[in-house]
Amino acid sequence: MVLEDYKEIVGLCAMYTTMAQMLSGTLICRNISMKGSSKGIDPMPFLGGTGLSILMLRYAWMLDDSNMINVNIFGLLTNVIYMIIYYHYAPNTKEVIILIYKLIIFVVIFLVYAQIEHPANIEYRFGIVVTVFLLLLIAAPLVHLKQVIKTKNTEILPFPLIFMGTLVTFQWLLYGFIIDNVFIIFQNAVGFTLSIAQLSLFVIFPSKKSQDKVQNKQKKKIN
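Now predict its structure.
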């Protein structure tokens, strides 16, 4: 297979692009800091990212894939930092703590399962777990679809994460084909499709901030 010759290049590109995606969370944290509150901002990208990084890290160790191990260690560290910032500015910290406890219970259950499952079955079955969790996380912004359509405004959606997620899922899709891993192929094929669908919302329903900037520029030209 021709793509196999580019395994290291594609793997490294996917790893560094994923790290860049994870760093895009700093833009959201910057907005939180400037506002002085995390009210109105969904914590799931950070909270879910923390849980997914832990589970994906366990799966990467099963596959003994250094690219996946490195990127998920990085992802775990960055998402923990983001959650600390989110918690610091949260108007209701009790709600955040409850969500954190739920995530810890969820993750621990599957980590224990990974230890007791038969070695012959664990890679396949754990692959199903991380695939479902990843797709739920990617699709999470679609929970706000009704609000976006109703208000015709995409301001509530995390554009930096969605845009970078599109690039990331495409590159990991290529990597999945190269290493011939059905779970990586499936999760990133669906993830890429979901990311494209979410990006299209920004074209159909621009954020009010973008519209205001355009209107201000037009007013300046008229003046």
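The CA atoms of residues 217 and 223 lie 10 Å apart.
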